[in-house]
Amino acid sequence: MPDYFFLIAGIGCAAFGGELFLRGAVGTASALRIAPAIIGVTVAAFATSSPELSVAIGSGLAGRSQISLGDALGSNIVNIALILGIALLISDIPVSSGTIRRDVSAAVLIPLLTGFFLLDGTLSRLDGLLMLCMFFAWLTAAVLEAARQRNSSESVAGGTGAMNPVLFAIGGLVLLVLSGRLIVSGATGIARAFGLDEFIIGATVVALGTSMPELASLVIARLRGQDEIGIGTILGSNIFNGLFIVSVAAILSPVRPPLPEVLPALAFGLLSVLIALPWPSSGRIRRVQGVFLLLLYALYMVTAFLLRP
């Protein structure tokens, strides 16, 4: 029972903390007059990826980096196949050409890059350092674009009005860090109780829990008519997870995951991004693509549990 309590409490902290941190981060960024798409792919994406970072640090220090790798890869599938799929059922989502050129391309390359590094069966510290360098190269490109696309409007949807956004961000970050610790503790105990290996638990249960902030941010962005922030958050979170989170986990403790479980996760992650590519003629992600994404997520869950040892 304590394990289930920790897991449920962690999921709750992730959802509430992610929403709180998102409001504070976006409120702060809006004061700097940064374009909505850039806010989503950097500030908001970092905010919503904080639970995965907490899991990576906690599991890496405990020598259980398989949980973190499973969480990062599983979260990327949840973000695109499940969360974006649900959002697309509401209506089509427009995507800017800059987002396609920089962020969608990176999201496609990340599963291929991770698979290449895992060819020898280990994600080493050197692999982690190389991925970290790639992450900072992408982040530099995003920041330089932000400098070029200063938005002259006084606010961006998602700000906190008279409330101090910095306090919102700090409070949300505290909850997100706490959520990572609770989720790792609960998920590890459940893994032992049911005889499931740590990668599967990370890729399914933990991934769902740590993706609650992305779900909250995308729903809020859609309701407020800020699709640029929503899609930017999803894509940016995947890049943070695939490059930054995975690299942190590998640097803290080299990962030797079971390849029969990792390769399907990488394949489903790549396939979900390919299905979600905007239509060239309109620059929009269509509602019908959301249906295919949800079917893909259901297939992934079945595959993940069928392939467990």
Automatic annotation (TrEMBL):
Classification via InterPro entries: K/Na/Ca-exchanger, NaCa_Exmemb, NCX_ion-bd_dom_sf
GO biological process: intracellular calcium ion homeostasis
Superkingdom of source: Bacteria
A matching Pfam family: Na_Ca_ex
TM segment ranges: 6-22, 34-57, 77-95, 104-123, 129-147, 167-187, 199-221, 233-256, 262-279, 291-307
Upper classification of the organism: Bacteria, Pseudomonadati, Chlorobiota, Chlorobiia, Chlorobiales
Lipid bilayer topology: Multi-pass membrane protein
Protein name, as recorded: Sodium:calcium antiporter
Keyword annotations from UniProtKB, A to Z: Membrane, Transmembrane, Transmembrane helix
Sodium/calcium exchanger membrane region domain mapped to chain residues: 5-142, 166-305
Cell compartments where the protein resides: Membrane
